[in-house]
Each structure stands twice: as structure tokens, then as C-alpha cells.
Amino acid sequence: MNSAAPFVPETHQLSELAKAARHCKGCPLYQDATQTVFGSGRPSARMMLIGEQPGDREDRAGAPFVGPAGRVLDKALAAAEIDRAELYLTNAVKHFKFTTNERGKRRIHKTPSRTEVEACRPWILAELDTIAPEVVVLLGATAAKSLLGNDFRVTRHRGEVLHSTGLVSEGDPALVATIHPSAVLRGPSESRDEAFDGLVADLRIAYATTRTVRSEGSAGSGTFIPAESPVRR
Questions:
Q1: DSSP code for 65
Q2: Which CATH architecture fits 14-213?
Q3: How far is CA 101 from CA 35, 38, 96, 97, 106, in A?
Q4: Closest CA to 199 of 185, 210, 212
Q5: For the chain, domain boundaries
Q6: What is the pLDDT of residues 170-179, one digit of tens each?
Q7: pTM of this prediction?
């Protein structure tokens, strides 16, 4: 089986979704992970952030963005004057994928495969439908591709206010793609400040869309159809 769909209940209650996700066996990742790491935050959040997958700290704690990347995100949110308590945070993949070092003691992050991302997509769609946010921030390539297709490139559309069709049953959430906070940590030390400032700028753009009315055809906006090859209109 390579889909979480059979495990996703028909409900708009986050507590029920989170409870069901604990028993998800939609892909093999559940076998090695400590636990499912479901989203958390404000149920009526106007802004939703989607990352790649839980890391080692998140896998142990059972909560998203509590490790090193989470600390970078907290710092970036503070710099952008955004209250994390007002947001909903989750990941495209709900189980930690990792490999181990030679001694088998350290768990090293491994990027989820396209099959694993697709398998977990029903959970993201259920969260989107339940939260009904005004804007979704896609943190990194995996999160962006999970909603906008495998051909989407963050580098081409970073910081743009995009719109997609068919993601939620009602409404049309804005989408803003940016780097994952972990990219700030992995980058060269001499460019980390620039990378961090770029993340802050993108978060500000996303947050601003929750306080403005979208104008069709405005500069820097576009429409995507979530598919294997997204179409720009």
C-alpha cells in the first residue's frame, strides 16, 4: 500500500485527524519512525506552514518544528513580527525518514521519495480542508512539490503569491514558496545572514496576504494546477 487515503477519516476535527494519523501505514516509513508527527497550532489559523518532514527531535517529541530548524523558524517569525501561536504548522510527510551512521547511533535525515510524499498527501489535503487558511507557506522543495507537482521549482517562484485550483473544497488559499529553515543552517556560513533575511522577507509577503484582498492578474501572482506538470496561467 502506498497511500494514506484509507487511514484518513471524513472529519473536520483536527483531534480526530491526529488520532487517526497515529495508526497510518500508508507507506513503509512508519516502520522505523518513533511516531507519527502530525501538525499543530491554531485550528482557525489564517496562515499555515508546511515543511518537508519531521527531524530527529520532532520524531522523539511528536511535534513539528521543535529542533534546530524550528529554532531558525521561530527566529525568522519573530523578525517578521508573526506570532507562531497564531499559525498552524505541519509537514508534507508525517514520519521521520533517516539513515544511520556507521556506529548506528546517529540518525541522519534522508529526503523523502516522491512516492512517499504522494502517499502522505491525503493528510495534507485533510489539514488544508480543516484549517481553511488564507495563505499557505511552502517551506522547501518537498513541501512545494507535494501541492504543486514535481516540476515546480522554488527558485523560479520564490516569494511570489500563487494560487492553485482544487486543493480545498472551498476557498482559494494563496501559496508562497520559500526555503526550508534548515537551508539556513546547511548553507555556507558567509551567506547564512542573507539566506535568513530572504526567509524573513518571504514570511512577511505571505503574512501580508492575510490582510489584503487579492487582485486578479496583479503583478507577481499566478495560478497553478496541482499536477505532475503544473500549468502557469
A1: S
A2: 3-Layer(aba) Sandwich (3.40)
A3: 21, 27, 16, 14, 6
A4: 185
A5: 14-213
A6: 778 999 999 9
A7: 0.89
